[in-house]
Design brief:
Order of helices and strands: EEEEEEHEEEE
Largest sheet: 4 strands, antiparallel
Strand order of the largest sheet: 2-1-5-6
Oligomer: single chain
Number of domains: 1
Shape: elongated
Number of helices: 1
Distance between the termini: 77 Å
Number of strands: 10
Structural class: mainly beta
Length: 144
């Protein structure tokens, strides 16, 4: 096609957040920490500065909440052991409440004139992940 722009497949790669895929610089190693957290009966992938929409949480806008981690990936090391996960803490700040999409419910029974129409919008809370902190303990060996 005349005037068509050729695009390489590598430029079409997108990250999980919707932006272009992060490129590591030469000689620099990429370190990335994320966690799978349990919130409201679901599990969500959370990294620092992500905004998650979760089921309604009790708390004021701007207050801090702690989410329990199910799995943590810390610089390539996968942590799933519950004893080790106790050392990790995922903190988030409540940003506000939002509503989900409108769901229309229609009840109908034939030959009776029975018709009912209802709607529903689920309430959710948006949280911003402020930190994934791990209490890394220095291992010391006893001599002797």
């Amino acid at each position: 096609m005349p005037g068509a722009k050729l695009v390489s497949p590598s430029s079409c790669v997108r990250s999980a957040r919707g932006g272009p895929a992060p490129q590591a610089r030469k000689g620099e190693r990429e370190s990335f920490v994320y966690a799978i957290v349990r919130c409201g009966g679901r599990q969500e992938k959370a990294a620092v500065d992500d905004v998650l929409t979760v089921d309604t949480l009790a708390g004021e806008v701007g207050s801090q909440v702690t989410l329990p981690a199910v799995l943590v990936v810390d610089d390539g090391k996968v942590v799933t052991d519950p004893a080790e996960l106790d050392h990790y803490q995922v903190t988030a700040e409540i940003m506000g409440t939002v509503v989900g999409p409108k769901i229309n419910i229609v009840h109908y029974r034939n030959k009776t004139g029975y018709r009912r129409r209802m709607g529903h919008r689920q309430r959710y809370t948006q949280v911003r992940i402020t930190g994934i902190d791990g209490a890394r303990k220095a291992t010391t060996r006893k001599k002797g």
